[in-house]
Design goal:
Keywords: Membrane, Transmembrane, Transmembrane helix
Largest sheet: none
Number of strands: 0
Structural class: mainly alpha
Strand content: under 5%
Radius of gyration: 19 Å
Helix content: over 70%
Length: 58
């Protein structure tokens, strides 16, 4: 079997983060329209606490 040189792949981190941000914004907008502003704020607060907790564990 031949050894082929390994080529570096493109970095898709920035497009992924932008897409994730748009998806998160859209999701919170739908929750706001469906359940109201307080529900969207409560979910955002809970997600923030979950991320802080996961960072503290790592």
């Amino acid at each position: 079997m031949r050894e082929h040189p390994v080529k570096p792949v493109e970095n898709y981190t920035t497009p992924f983060l932008v897409s994730a941000g748009v998806l998160l914004f859209s999701t919170l907008l739908v929750i706001w329209a469906w359940l109201g502003l307080l529900a969207a704020l409560a979910i955002s607060w809970a997600m923030n606490k979950l991320l802080d907790w996961r960072r503290a564990r790592a």
